[in-house]
Amino acid sequence: MRKYLYIYKATLIENLQYISNIILGMISFFVTIFVFLNLWDYMYADSSELINGYNINQMVWYVLIGEILWYGTRNKTLTNEISNDIKSGNIAYNINKPYNYVFYIISKHFGEITIKFITFILIGSVIGRIFVGKIIGFSLVSIPFIMIVVLLGVFINSIIRIAISVISFWIEDSNPFHWVYDKFILIFGTIFPIEMFPKILQSAMIFSPIFVVNYGPAKLIINFTFEKFIQIFIVQIIYIVILVLLLLLLYNKGVRKLNVNGG
Question: pTM for the full model?
Answer without folding.
Answer: 0.89
